[in-house]
Design goal:
Layout: E1 2-6, H1 11-14, H2 16-26, E2 30-36, H3 40-45, E3 49-53, H4 67-89, E4 95-98, H5 103-113, E5 117-121, H6 142-172, H7 179-188, E6 193-195, E7 212-214, H8 230-237, E8 243-245, H9 255-269, E9 273-276, E10 290-293, H10 298-301, E11 307-310, H11 314-323, E12 327-329, H12 336-345, H13 360-372, H14 374-387, H15 392-401
Parallel strand pairs: 1-2, 1-4, 2-3, 4-5, 5-6, 6-7, 8-9, 8-11, 9-10, 11-12
């Protein structure tokens, strides 16, 4: 079967689909990945055909922006995304696998192409009474209030996609159809969505409709022969396990301030550190107790750390838990406060430090709690054991095989 995976966003929004695509390719499928241009090398390494999207994920990654500014940036991002998705679908496919960020427009593509589609989401975005919408950091509102807020959130997403969907349907030669009408049609059909996170971290809500599943993570593809650079290996062997500090694709332009906070916090806590530069441009300087690195596979590095300070994106939260090490969550925006709270709730992390409240003193205290409290490591290790028995990519492959012509 010719499968097109469509994913847009930052590294954590795209990298897991390289592992999913590689698994499906090993099952005998012809797999292409449509994603922002920066991920072409990653797709090639995992053996996938690559179809570039023009949308720049950095446009929505400024954690300092206010709500209205972020909504405006999101709308602009979505506007550019529509044409890019249509271009990527041009060579054709027998099945579309749609990420959270691409599904609202991908539904229209599947209709025009007359092919099935399956949601492959990294976040639990569908309304539930068990927790409030994961984007926006809303406080629990009770079962009825949580579901109501979730439905309001869906309507906001509909409005953000309305113009892009209208233009896309015109380009595809489809009759006019409101975005909300399209979404509700998918819900009535129990459109399948497989959620790529562990039920250890977020169990499937009991009030979700039929067709919504939590299947376990799919992980970024890592070549079997991949090893850590010699410089990193040397640093790891030179002393006790370090604390990793990285904010991934968050806090661009704030690197100097954050670097100072991170290095000060590591030294106050009395631990060695590995700083991942990321979009913020973190840099620990030339000190012997801090090493600055670029992008490296979390699967190779995290198991060798004492704790991981991170922005609590879905992918990094899962990778830290998979490694069996404690997290120190510093959520910045979007769904990050949700994942940070989940890590703390299962005991794998101390209380999160909101990015806006980050200081060296607070970060040092959280690092010491994560490292000294054996309970955090024990609970992270227990979760890692459960996650090791899950294979989200295999569950997706089963869903594909169940489709007509899926084998």
């Amino acid at each position: 079967m010719k499968i097109l995976i469509m994913a847009a966003g930052s590294h954590g929004d795209v990298a897991p689909y390289t592992g999913l695509g590689a698994h499906l390719r090993a099952e005998g499928h012809d797999v292409a990945l449509a994603a922002p241009e920066a991920f072409g090398g990653m797709a090639a390494e995992s053996g996938l055909e690559f179809r570039p999207l023009p949308a720049d994920p950095r446009a929505c990654a400024d954690g300092r922006a206010g709500g209205s500014t972020l909504l405006a940036k999101a709308a602009a991002f979505i506007g550019r995304l529509g044409d890019g998705l249509a271009d990527a679908a041009g060579p054709g496919a027998d099945l579309l696998l749609l990420a959270t960020t691409t599904a609202p427009l991908g539904w229209h593509l599947a209709e025009a192409m007359d092919v099935p589609s399956i949601g492959v989401y990294l976040q639990p975005t569908l309304p539930t009474g068990e927790f409030p919408p994961i984007v926006g950091g809303a406080r629990p509102l009770g079962r009825w209030g949580n579901r109501a807020a979730g439905r309001v959130g869906q309507r906001v997403v509909d409005r953000l996609h309305a113009d892009a969907a209208r233009r896309l349907r015109t380009r595809l030669g489809l009759p006019p159809l409101a975005q909300g009408t399209q979404r509700r049609a998918r819900e009535r059909e129990n459109w399948p969505v497989l959620h790529g996170f562990s039920p250890t971290l977020v169990p499937r809500p009991a009030d979700w409709r039929s067709g919504l599943h939590v299947v376990g993570n799919w992980w970024p593809y890592v070549t079997p022969a991949r090893r850590l650079p010699d410089e990193v290996e040397d640093f790891l062997r030179a002393g006790p396990p370090p604390v990793f500090v990285g904010l991934g694709s968050m806090a661009a332009g704030d690197g100097e301030r954050l670097s100072g906070i991170a290095v000060d916090a590591l030294r106050r806590a009395g631990v060695r550190g590995v700083l991942q530069s990321g979009w913020a441009g973190l840099d620990g300087g030339s000190a012997d107790d801090v090493l600055t690195i670029g992008e490296l596979p979390h699967a190779l590095l995290f198991p060798r750390t004492a704790a991981v300070v991170h922005h609590a994106g879905a992918g990094t939260s899962a990778a830290t838990l998979r490694a069996g090490v404690p997290s120190v969550p510093v959520p910045v925006m979007a769904d990050q406060p949700f994942w940070a709270a989940r890590l703390a709730a299962i005991g794998a992390a101390p209380s999160p430090i909101p990015y806006a409240d980050l200081t060296a003193e607070r970060l040092a205290g959280a690092i010491r709690r994560a490292v000294d409290d054996r309970g955090h490591r024990a609970r992270a290790g227990a979760a890692a054991g459960l996650m090791a028995r899950e294979c989200g990519a295999a569950r997706v492959a089963e869903a594909v095989a169940a489709l007509p012509g899926g084998r």
